[in-house]
Amino acid sequence: MKNKLIISLFAVLLCTGAAFSQARIILPDSSQITGDPDSLDLLPHGTSHLDHLIHDHGAEADSLQKLARMTLWRLDVRTGNRLPAESDTLLHNFQHSTLPDGYSTAMGFLGPLGSPAISKVFFDRGETETFLFNNAYSHYLKNPEKLNFVNTRVPYSRLGYHRAGPKQTREERLDARLTSNFGKSLNIGLDVDMINARGFYAEQSVKHNNFSLFGSYLSDRLEAHAMLHLGSITHFENGGITDERFITDPEAVGESFTSLDIPVRFSDTWNTLKQNHYFLSGRYNLGYRELPEDSLHKKPGAFVPVASVGFTTHLTQQHRRFLSYDTAYVNVEGIQMQQIDRFYSNRYYEGAVDDSIHFTSLKNSVSLSLREGFKEWVKFGLSAFLEYDLRNYAMRDTVGEGYVSHRESAVTLGGVLNKQQGEHLLFNLRADLGVLGANLGEFRAMGDVETGFDLAGKRTILTAEAYLKNLRPKYLQEHYYSKYFRWNHDLGDIRRVYVGGKLYIPFTHTTLSVGVENLQNHIYYGSDKIITQEGGNIQVLTARIDQKLRLGIFNWDNQVVYQTSSNQEVLPLPMLNLYSNIYLKAKIVNELTLQLGVDAHYHSSYYAPGYEPALLHFYNQRERKIGDYPIATVYANMHLKQTRFFLMFYNVGSKVLKENDSFSLPGYPVNPFVFKLGLSVNLHN
Are the beta carbons of 565 and 518 closer than 8 angstroms? Predict the structure, then answer.
């Protein structure tokens, strides 16, 4: 890890020297464009249209606010539309963003940073991915949809590092971004994200290596975006601890021990996941130049885009491998088997477990867009796209020699209708239909509508959203071959109907939201860890309140999520989930801001999902309830000019509460009481 850190830091310095998931679509219009052909002027100058998003995330300040003007956006990879993005330099609760707990009000994870995780709040979960093994690492994986593209007047770099624990159990993460404009149109950048968590329990170390080279070119006529990403994850699997009394009742063990001494089920066993992306998107704008008001003025008028034609190509290469050297032979009820085999009822081939699967996806899409606002009477934008996806699978054959191969294609036709300019009514409607191949008959229709009104100069926002989905099962949900699990299913389409709304009240700093969804043919992993399907209907109801209280330097932020599932055996969910954060926030001197507080995540007791390493997935279990225990931290979060840094004590409840039940999932305790620190530095010159 030290060598990799040195190499990464050297790359950062070298490049610096050389350089010196509801979104709003950024559409150039005549009100945003000046006579100066500066690509920065193609984007909105202000950030008022993101104010409600900042409130939703509890952000009060951004360490980039004092920088020279810099614009960030994400890309709709199918249509080429640019969607405004938030920077990751928010000052408020910086320490919370470095924890697996920070991804949702209630999270389930294996302990180390970078380990498989699942949100316990149903509506925080995304759709199942085509390559199923991505789901467990979805919070850490990189792809073009998540990438923040940049346009900046001055070279910008960010370097962040945080660590926890002594050398033997150290957990650390290095992330860096370097980006610079070469002229007014071209931007090139590099992202580095590396995690090295040795684990506070035996056999659970995690390593992530992610490197992304990206760039964009923006001019009146041409818009281009590119990304090259190389990523890998190595995760040692311990199968969970064998005796939970080491956590819940350590005195019963009768001897002194450390967390590394607690016995676990597996040794010398790990999952690896590799993911590479090669992405290129281009769009050509059709339009005209406005005539100058003064006929003697020789400078050409502003370019007004009317329509655009786009093309995107995206190659994804992925490889997952489950391998174990835990092969010492043991006798179980008169049967000789390898050590790891005794935890599984089926063995579909002999020898050491070595399951691997390769997946490639090549997507090509074309799009046609009509721009909103190029004339006063054009009140909405319209985009249409056609996408072709060629997929290839290869996995180890558990019956014969070699690999089982499968090739499929999917053709999708879709469109977007939106109105994102104005103040009183905004909407974004999107639909896509599988017209040929593996996704024939798959359908999504999604939409959100936003309105608001000003009271005493403050904006109250009301949002309604809904979707209707008919989803085809993924190939790996119907066909899978490995040493311990094998199935061939003929599953039905999944049908999902959702309707919900949100109200933001600025006077009380309150956000209220409610949603209900009906699921039919829900696919899940049962208690036998085999994938199955529930033919009946399941209803999920969620109500949430985000409340912020202020009194001078005293602050109290709360997130409360209530949710119910009509079938807890098929879709188990904790009824009550909350995050509470009490802190003092004040400026110590002119340049130093201090946030000092304590926070905690809590959810009610329920049958939390189990984790199966051989599947790299979560399954339903009915043996052990998890919850009714706070995971709390005490922290100091500080900001000095362009530097953020924090100090934190994690899982303080295990030290101050009489009983210790700090488990995230059955068999997987969260990290023990530990000290953590980190910093992030922004450089602009």
Answer: no
Helix (H, G, I), strand (E, B) or coil at 167: helix
**In sequence order, which residues have a C-beta less than 8 Å from that of residue 266 and are 6 or more positions away?**
203, 237, 238, 239, 324, 326, 340, 343, 613
Mean pLDDT for back-to-back runs of 10 residues, the chain (685 residues): 43 37 35 31 33 34 57 92 81 89 96 96 95 96 95 92 95 96 95 97 97 96 97 97 93 89 96 98 90 63 87 98 94 89 92 94 96 76 95 86 89 92 85 96 95 84 96 96 94 97 93 97 96 96 96 96 97 98 92 94 97 97 96 95 94 91 96 96 83
CATH topology of domain 2-684: Maltoporin; Chain A (2.40.170)
Bridge partners, residue 180, by sequence: 188
Helix (H) or strand (E) holding 248: helix 245-248
Residues 6+ apart with CB under 8 A from 469: 443, 444, 445, 446, 494, 495, 496, 497
Q: What residue segments make up the domains of the chain, in order of their start?
A: 2-684
Length of the chain: 685
0.90 surpassed by pTM: no
Could you tell me which residues come within 8 angstroms of residue 518 by beta carbon, excluding any fewer than 6 positions away? 495, 496, 497, 498, 537, 538, 539
